[in-house]
Specification:
The chain has 9 helices and no strands. The chain is mostly helical. The longest helix has 23 residues, at about 70-95.
């Protein structure tokens, strides 16, 4: 049942990744250009490389070549970009390429989440299934998965329920003695 709920969240999910990166000012809230924008591979994106990347992205989205993006073209482009990113993320996690992400693959492939949180997140997402499907991974990576991430972060005893103490405690890395921030390299479990 948990898996069905997560999978149904994917339908309305619309991510503005690729084209948002190509728009003036980059993605909302800042961020870096994708590696393909660094045309000469020197680790830096120059103004010329940025402009060329934006132009190329616009041209890919402008499927009828009229020099303008319709809503339909934008939606089609964004859906294709989202699907590509999800497939790449799933392939990175699915180390044995069997089409299912195991708990070990998930935890080892998501070090920025922290081992404890990743293990709880995996258990919540998978439920009674034998592994994490591409659809479920897509759901937990999207905006609808934010509450699942938050729950997994707060559920410190891993019992799939929040006590008042867990609910009121500051998130890991936000209070005295509460652990390291995700991505800080500190051990998790």
């Amino acid at each position: 049942m948990k898996k069905l709920t997560l999978v149904t969240c994917v339908g309305p999910l619309t991510l503005c990744g690729g084209l948002a990166l190509a728009m003036p000012g980059g993605p909302p809230g800042g961020g870096q250009f994708p590696p393909e924008a660094d045309l000469d591979g020197d680790g830096h994106v120059t103004r010329d490389e940025m402009d060329l990347h934006r132009t190329n992205t616009f041209d890919m989205a402008d499927t009828n070549g009229d020099g303008q993006l319709s809503l339909s073209e934008l939606q089609t482009y964004e859906e294709a970009e989202r699907a590509t990113r999800q497939a790449e993320a799933f392939a990175r996690l699915d180390a044995d390429a069997n089409g299912v992400v195991t708990e070990d693959e998930f935890i080892n492939g998501a070090p920025e989440t922290g081992v404890d949180v990743a293990a709880r997140l995996y258990a919540l997402a998978v439920g009674d299934a034998t592994g994490l499907s591409a659809e479920t991974l897509a759901a937990i990576q999207g905006p609808e998965g934010a509450s699942l991430h938050q729950f997994a972060s707060l559920d410190t005893d891993g019992n799939s329920a929040l006590s008042l103490e867990e609910f009121l405690a500051p998130p890991a890395g936000r209070g005295p003695g509460e652990g390291a921030r995700p991505g800080s390299g500190a051990p998790g479990r």
